[in-house]
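Thread: quick sanity check before group meeting

JM: Hey all, I'm pulling together slides for Thursday and realized we never actually wrote out the predicted structure for the chain we discussed last week. Dropping the sequence here so it's in one place. If anyone has concerns about the input, flag it before I start.
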Amino acid sequence: MKNLFSKSLSKKKLAIIATSFVVFAAAFGFLIYETTKKTVALTIDGQEKTVKTHAATIEELLEEINVTLNSKDYVFPEKNTKVKNDLKVVWKPAKQVHIVKDNEKKTVWTTVDTVGELLKEQNITLSEYDEVHPKVDDVIKKDLEIEVNKAFALTLVDGGKEEKVWSTSTTVADFLSQQGITLNEFDRVEPNVKEPVKANTVVNVIRVEKVTDVVEEPINYAVVSKKDSSLNQGTEKVMTKGQEGLVSKEYEVILENGKEVSRKLLSEKTLKEKQDQVVAVGTKVVAQQVSRGTAPSGGKEMYVTSTAYTANCSGCSGNTATGINLRANPDIKVIAVDPSVIPLGTKVYVEGYGYAVAADTGSSVKGNKIDVFFASKADAYRWGRRTVKIKILN
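JM (edit): ok, ran it. Output follows.
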């Protein structure tokens, strides 16, 4: 009985010892495993952490922490670098980004942080007038679409004032909005606001104003001639002095860039009536008509070149410079003179013509020249051109 108990006790001790050895060995092995790990500082997509690993390379290390590498990703040092204690590893995943420039779309992979860095990476240079959406400081996100609008030069003429400007607009309307141009009710734009714009386009904004203009204008009076048998031929007398009237006119005026282009009469109102001037024209014959006879004695004599005219000649009005109506008095004897040689109203005797009155002038009657009046063209043609002696009677 005693032997059986001793054997049983010995077996238990052996089992305990064996178990303790196994536990010790496992613990010792775990201790050895853990103490032989290498400490690595990881920066994963901007997040920092420290890991212990038995991985041989950086690629194995990243796989160990469930990071799937893309060929476009940024890894430093290179993924096949051997892991050693206190190694610093940086991994940035590449993001797919779409760039739209000049209406062309391109897809790229990048590991940079901002839109501006990506454009620099893609060798896209921006001027101060170019536009980028989103902004250059915005953070890159997966599948981000970046629109780059390159500015171009064109000419803006606003109200006649011209300037060179830069724009990224696609239409005239968009361009005007971008430039802060506001159109008034009647303004117009060339080309039309719906038209596209491109480099070297000239956008002309014509400022149109519609205004009302009220002006006062004089009304000219007429000269009315009335025959007066109490006055000598060749004399006139103002019976009623003429006075101008006054009218107020309201116009609709269209101005383009400050210059008047049209004027439309809207209404008019007479403020003062005109008064015509009435002139009495003498018809009394002061000298008795005589035939072409002997010249009277006395008076200054002179030789002149003479021509003849009628009341119906081309350009003739039928009225003399002193107001005698030749058509109404076909038998009157009148000569046209140069008033600086023979004053108007002078009574003369013309050799071959008779007694006459210097009562008319003519553009070609200058110096010692006279033009004698005949009622008919036949008589005027017969007279022709001749040198005659005249005598000044008064």
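AS: nice. The chain has five domains: 38-92, 95-149, 152-206, 211-281, 288-392. The helical segments are 2-35, 58-64, 115-121, 172-178, 377-383.
JM: adding both to the slides.
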